Amino acid sequence: MLLIECPWCGPRAESEFSCGGEADIARPLDTEKLTDREWGDYLFMRTNSRGVHREQWMHTQGCRRWFKVQRDTVSYEIQGYETFDRPLAVMDSNEGTTK
Ligand SMILES: [Zn+2]
């Protein structure tokens, strides 16, 4: 189980959070001009990358705020956290994970 550090509440068990998927996906500005394929790509297609990945998490059992996590999808190591008004805070190498 991951130990996720909510930027407002501190470290909590993964079970208190909901993952919102890949971060940094911008909504297209001119949606009327998009083809069905382009709209479908925006809605459904994700990179599903192996390695360092940025994703959104919500502390659903706590403060109910959204934040971003930079995580390695191979080792599950959380490398840092970011709020929507504060840039990425990088963590020490093994902090934030449990084995
Ligand atoms: Zn919280």
UniProtKB/TrEMBL annotation:
Annotated coiled-coil segments of the chain: none
Pfam families from the UniProt entry: SoxD (PF04267)
InterPro entries according to UniProt: SoxD (IPR006279), SoxD_sf (IPR038561)
GO molecular function: sarcosine oxidase activity
GO biological process: tetrahydrofolate metabolic process
Protein known as: Sarcosine oxidase subunit delta
